[in-house]
Specification:
single chain; 90 residues; mainly alpha; Methane Monooxygenase Hydroxylase, Chain G, domain 1
């Protein structure tokens, strides 16, 4: 990932997620109701998914543009990229 602003935004999102996780730890220690804890976990899951989408969007061209000098795409590399994208989308 070459865009420094995108990197900065992703790092900020990850730090926010880290803070939310610490908040959930406190909620559990304080004995908060499970519905409140689960709501926060759902918010974290959504945030992590958004970070993944940003990374995928920003990195798509790096992943898909051939690195080979002849401009050809290595089939095995492409299969691995597709498998990764499918795994992320589950």
């Amino acid at each position: 990932m070459e865009n420094e602003q995108v990197k900065k935004n992703i790092i900020n999102r990850l730090k926010t997620i880290k803070g939310h996780i610490a908040g959930i730890e406190r909620m559990i220690e304080e004995g908060k109701p499970c519905n409140e804890v689960l709501l926060q976990i759902a918010a974290i899951k959504a945030s992590v998914h958004k970070v993944g989408l940003v990374i995928m969007e920003e990195s798509a061209m790096d992943c898909l543009i051939p690195n080979e000098e002849d401009g050809r795409v290595n089939r095995e590399e492409m299969e691995n990229i597709i498998k990764t994208l499918i795994q992320f989308s589950k």
